[in-house]
Amino acid sequence: MTHMLYPTTNLTATEQLVITHGEGVYVYDNQGRQYLEGMSGLWCTALGYGNEEVVETAARQMRTLSYSHLFGGKTHPAAMELADKLSAMVPMADARVFLGNSGSDANDTQVKLLRYYFNAIGKPEKYKIISRERAYHGVTVAAASLTGLAPNHTHFSLPFDALGVLRTGAPHFYRDGLPGETEEQFANRRADELEALILAEGPETIAAFIAEPISGAGGVIVPPAGYFEKVQALLRKYDILMWDDEVICGFGRTGADFGATSLGIQPQLMSLAKALSSAYMPVSAALITGDMYDVMVEPSAQVGIFGHGYTYGGHPVACAVASKVLEIYQREQLFERARVMGLYMQQKLQAFADHPLVGEVRGMGMIAALELVANKQTRQAFNGNAVGAYCQLRCQEHGLIVRAMGGNSVALCPPLVISEAQVDELVEKLGRALDETLAHVIR
Ligand code: PLP
């Protein structure tokens, strides 16, 4: 028993699992037990653990310049290099980069950049942001307000109205499709609902639509074909910016460089974190297009200081590590590897579609989820989250880390460096845990 307060518990939780070290795709606990990290920590350790090249880079940067900041235009080579690399990499023209420490703070930065931008172009009334149910965008006050999951709202009296947060439906066909509805009809219905919301609020009041290409924490929701095409047609029609939260999907996870590439998204804003440094250091980036930047900085648009920035934003060690990680992704062609290994993993996981407990197997590239249901035919969900939690525990007993999410979906998001044999190991352990969970549920 230590003096820790643990996140996402009722704060009375005591130590559950003490992880002491990691190597490749495995982590080890204080009893010396090995676990295949099937979740890359919290969807982030894409390169796996213990990469010596990254470790060396961090040590070298600490010796050279352990800290400097970016306030007022003071800068350092590691931040400049990272910003330029990101700008060249993302599917946005001449992107400008604001560096931070976490996905949540990148999203808070974007909320402020949006306000600043619309003030600069003389449209301060255009401030509302449409977010989706079951979206996860972080836990700082603004990011938590954008998040569409009740547990992240309860107790906190979040300022939804002050921030102008609007909510629209999630593109989850398996859960929300109506009887007899096709995926295309479902996507059309979601687009119609979005248009109705835009018209009810007034397009002139709406700044942006925020979406994860594939919603992660909300249950690994892969949208139906055509969904983002329809959404983006509406955004263009009503002059609303597309804000792409790539905190999970970025850097190979979906089997391409970004989730935007896999799903045909053309963003004006992008938020990046997690695999940006493969979680070797906390670092994030909020990106806007060169067009947005250009109009903001015109003399006639000047609205004064953008009074925002973090002490550790653009930390030299974090930036040097992130640049090295991006170099390794490219050199080792890890996004292409993720595409190929992702096909293998998804195909192996499809074998569970016949399992009596599994309602849906879904995913893309190296991210997936199995939704556990009480009745396969009717798709009836279990009450509460105990079944998913039990399955997660059984996996852990077998030396596999997965993540049970609300609604009893079990998520998988292994490091991109996982081998075929290790995917087989993951699937075999998961299969055993599923059978044990079924036996537990029947009993
Ligand atoms: N956005 C998405 C899509 C996320 O999945 C997360 C975290 O899981 C965040 C934002 C918040 O990132 P962080 O936990 O680094 O603040």
**Can you identify the CATH superfamily of the largest domain?**
Type I PLP-dependent aspartate aminotransferase-like (Major domain)
CATH topology of the largest domain: Aspartate Aminotransferase, domain 2
Rounded to an integer, what's the Rg over CA atoms? 22 Å
Categorize the overall geometry: globular
Q: Looking across the biggest beta sheet, what order are the strands in?
A: 4-10-9-8-7-5-6
In the predicted model, the low-confidence regions spanning at least 5 consecutive residues are: none
Question: Could you describe the largest sheet, including whether it forms a barrel?
Answer: 7 strands, mixed
Ligands bound, unique: pyridoxal-5'-phosphate
The CATH class label of the largest domain is: Alpha Beta
The number of distinct β-strands equals 15
Q: What percentage of amino acids are in beta strands?
A: 15-25%
